[in-house]
């Protein structure tokens, strides 16, 4: 077998609440298949060749991103790195946090997608951002070596995104409106420039003397910092529950916070946790005070704290690597739904797959919420392992659970996409048809492995319609 090697230039662009950054990487991929078989491409090496400066995300006002300034930033960083956008073969643009809620976020993404050949372009809602950050920080990999649940706190400028990992699987997510730039002030004059609405509500409830235009001091900020840190500890089931816990939830808390045994941190505030500089005001926000107070909190006393690979750059994507494959021969599909491109993948755990139909459907619908951004649910591909030689009864159990669980997708008229590792797509697809409206489009393919955080392309049928070409795009973190 001859090993074929190729090097790809890739880019990752992260637009967050507070900061925007870019990373250029070289990804070495090798085709381990023979000349007469389907390509089997794997990443053999990844090397960061350029890290941009980290800038504050440019805004025209609190609701609109400065699209022109973002494009200028990317163009300037390409120039500094000495590369042309035509040299870039693939990459990813991820827009997260408060920035994803801005009025023109989709327009910005579309503009930036022209800066690489084949981009994965995604607006990440709070749950998907939690997963991306947890994978980027290295928490997903850490969880494979630990028996308990590990939660990653990605604390940025506007939100704290939590993702719980167990044995390499995402098992829960949460998000809180807690971040380092919820109060902003002028570094020179110390005058307060901005207070986030929820923080203002707490200030009013506590009768604190903190207003826009006031001179900021540590003494004035300490009561607010204390409340935010208490809620962050509560998020992992630690400490007396704050009366502001529910107020500061972005979408939902963890379903079982007491199960968390270890904690990791990423995001800009993670860098502030161990900051040894005596100054507290050099960034013009509360990030340094929040990080230092967190380190002294009950959370650090009652949970094991693990070190992450990345902190502020955890959500920066190094590249979108492609794995080309073809489906198995026992597949089901409606041809007029093809091709489909850049569809995010939701992977069930083995535990999910063993559930009774009603419980499986609930688990699927809970996890679909990970992909909601600005109130909208996109088309999702459901991935699972399946069984090697399933009985008719088992096929029916899978079909009922999947059809009920994916109902929020297909009731919108979108096709039902299912990707299975085991060779059972034909039987499962036929069973799924019985649970859907007559003639509803479906694509059910097997012999394909896809994970949470992947994106999938499925092309037109080949080999006389016997198989479908599939490309899995995996986000590669630094």
Report on this structure.
The chain has 478 residues and is of the alpha/beta class. Helices cover 27% and strands 28% of the residues. An eight-stranded mixed β-sheet has the order 14-21-20-16-17-18-19-15. Strands 1, 2, 3, 4, 5 and 6 form a six-stranded mixed β-sheet that branches. The protein has a five-stranded mixed β-sheet with strand order 9-8-7-12-13. A hairpin with a 3-residue loop joins strand 1 and strand 2. The radius of gyration is 23 Å and the shape is globular. The relative contact order is 0.13.
Features:
single chain; 478 residues; 14 helices; alpha/beta; six-stranded mixed sheet
List the strand order in the largest sheet: 14-21-20-16-17-18-19-15
How large is the radius of gyration?
A: 23 Å
Major pleated sheet: 8 strands, mixed
- How many helices? The count is 14
Task: Output mean pLDDT.
Answer: 83
Instruction: Please give the number of β-strands.
Output: 21
Low-confidence stretches: 318-322
Main structural class: alpha/beta
Portion of residues in beta strands equals 25-35%
Q: Categorize the overall geometry.
A: globular
Helix content: 25-40%
Terminal CA distance reads 30 Å
In short:
This protein has 14 helices and 21 strands. 48% of the residues are buried.
SSE topology sketch:
Elements: E1 4-15, E2 19-31, E3 41-51, E4 55-56, H1 67-81, E5 90-95, H2 105-112, E6 118-123, H3 126-137, H4 139-143, E7 149-155, E8 160-166, E9 169-176, E10 183-185, E11 192-195, H5 197-206, H6 218-234, E12 260-266, H7 268-273, H8 287-295, H9 298-302, E13 304-305, E14 317-326, E15 332-333, E16 340-347, H10 350-353, H11 357-368, E17 381-384, H12 392-405, H13 407-410, E18 416-420, H14 425-433, E19 442-446, E20 455-458, E21 469-477
Parallel strand pairs: 1-5, 5-6, 7-12, 12-13, 16-17, 17-18, 18-19
Antiparallel strand pairs: 1-2, 2-3, 2-4, 7-8, 8-9, 10-11, 14-21, 15-19, 16-20, 20-21
Helix pairs in contact: 1-2, 6-8, 11-12, 12-14
